[in-house]
Specification:
The strands form six sheets. A six-stranded antiparallel β-sheet has the order 5-4-7-2-3-6. It starts with a helix and ends with a strand. Helix 8 links the parallel strand 12 and strand 13. By secondary structure, the protein is of the alpha/beta class. The chain contains 16 helices and 23 strands. The structure holds FE2/S2 (inorganic) cluster. FE2/S2 (inorganic) cluster binds next to loops.
Length: 464
């Protein structure tokens, strides 16, 4: 009899209704809300130093880096958010290179946190991270950042989590968070990968799915060859596949992260199966060149034009990369004279603009914008010194949009003031900047700003 009861209890766990993040209760504590809030740390980006305490190799060429804050405080974040990290790729005397990485750990275990980096042999930063970041490495961070995260409370926590490739990172944080919390939830994870043994976190995901009846995990191998014995799904994301794993998709909140091509497809398919726009949350920005590279690969594979592209690049790198922004939409890749793709706008920083700072305008070698061609309409003027153009703008318009329309090349990813990739130096004038953590206080003091979330208050001279 005892055995029957025990089995029943295991089969049908009694849970509280819905899912609620633990900090809700702490913050809502009527007696000492202020103290509770301080203990948890503010819910807005802050600058802090953190020390690596562990590195864990993952499948698919990823490495997980576990960190703890140098000040001993927990890192308060929401599952799905990311941090901006400064990597001293060129040595301690040079400007560090910023990259953003989604947190893969759960905020319910806030004393350490982790992010995972996929090694891209052709990348400038990820190989350096894999080789140099070890236990004891201290890095400068800014975060948490990002609007892509689970809600703080959900009475009807029913989710469809879609991930492709390295896009599993924030989804992993969500799965770990839900698994660690009490409360009713119904979670379907659909994870696309390119190789049978390349699914990062697979052992942990399988374990969670085996002990937590609320969470189901499906793997799909896309269409790049399925080895014998493969038990998972086959093929790229399709409406039929969504229907198969989550026939009730239109009653779920959908969180998706992966390469841009994958997310664009997902958007279309989700509409097809009846998921309302307001229930779809996407993370287009995975924080490094990976997204852009994967998207390029998808295009090359799908249309079999890799050869053609290689020839075009060989003939004229400048012309080829000039033609990309429209095709790549969000990513607007920049390039340097070697034709190197870089979605972060780093070439602008690499040119030593920070050191020049606001005094650069006085440099005798600085071009005089009064001789530049002026384009556009508006009551104020943006002078782009390197591009050699004056662009008219109205005070209500965002600077990045107007600049890009006028042909000024500024790398940009999130376009919401979060990722820092559009950062440029303002040599004179005032802006109204509404950022969400994509820039540090000392960078603002050095004259930098984020044109994607800024409007002009006066005429501006910009080093771009
Ligand atoms: S594009 Fe991300 S901060 Fe401007």
């Amino acid at each position: 009899m005892t055995e029957v009861l025990t089995q029943q209890a295991v089969r049908e766990p009694q849970r509280i209704r819905g899912l609620e993040m633990p900090w809700n209760r702490v913050m809502g504590s009527a007696e000492t809300p202020a103290r509770a809030a301080r203990a948890l740390g503010p819910w807005h980006p802050q600058e802090f130093m953190a020390e690596c305490v562990e590195t864990i190799p993952e499948a698919g060429g990823l490495m997980t880096f576990v960190f703890r804050r140098g000040d001993g405080a927990p890192l308060a974040f929401r599952a799905g958010q990311y941090v901006n990290i400064a990597f001293p790729v060129n040595g301690d005397d040079e400007d560090p290179v910023d990259r953003s990485y989604s947190l893969s750990s759960s905020p319910t275990q806030p004393w350490t946190f982790s992010f995972s980096v996929k090694r891209d042999a052709a990348g400038a930063v990820s190989p350096w991270i894999h080789e140099n970041v070890k236990p004891g490495t201290v890095l400068d961070m800014l975060g948490p950042v990002g609007a892509f995260h689970l809600p703080d409370a959900d009475r009807r926590a029913r989710y469809l989590l879609l991930a492709a490739g390295a896009g599993i990172t924030p989804i992993m944080s969500m799965v770990r968070t839900i698994h660690s919390l009490p409360g009713q939830a119904d979670v379907v994870v659909l994870y696309h990968g390119a190789e049978a043994d390349g699914f990062a976190f697979q052992r942990e995901l399988d374990h969670i799915a085996s002990v937590d009846a609320r969470i189901r995990v499906h793997y799909s191998l896309g269409d790049r060859g399925v080895p014998e014995g493969w038990q998972g799904l086959r093929g790229r994301l399709s409406a039929a596949m969504i229907d198969e794993v989550a026939p009730d998709a239109n009653g779920r909140q959908v969180y998706a992260c992966g390469p841009e091509g994958y997310l664009n497809t997902a958007t279309e398919l989700l509409k097809k199966v009846g998921v309302d726009d307001t229930s779809i949350y996407m993370e287009f920005f995975t924080g490094n060149r990976q997204t852009l590279l994967e998207y390029q690969q998808e295009i090359a594979l799908a249309s079999d034009i890799a050869e053609e592209i290689a020839e075009e690049i060989a003939e004229s790198p400048e012309e080829y990369f000039e033609s990309q922004p429209a095709a790549f939409g969000l990513y607007e890749p920049g390039y340097d004279e070697d034709g190197t793709l870089d979605a972060t706008g780093l070439p602008l920083e690499a040119a030593g603009t920070e050191a020049a700072g606001p005094v650069a305008a006085a440099d005798p070698g600085t071009p005089d914008p009064s001789g530049f061609t002026t384009v556009g309409t508006g009551s104020l003027t943006l002078s782009f010194l390197r591009t050699g153009v004056n662009v008219r703008i109205d005070p209500s318009e965002h600077i990045l949009e107007v600049a890009q329309r006028a042909g000024v090349r500024i790398g940009a990813n999130c376009k919401e003031g979060m990722c820092g990739s559009c950062k440029v130096v303002k040599l004179s004038g005032d802006v109204d900047m509404n950022h969400q953590g994509g820039i540090r206080a000392r960078e603002i003091a050095a004259g930098k700003f984020l044109p994607c979330c800024s409007t002009a208050k006066t005429d501006l001279v910009i080093d771009a």
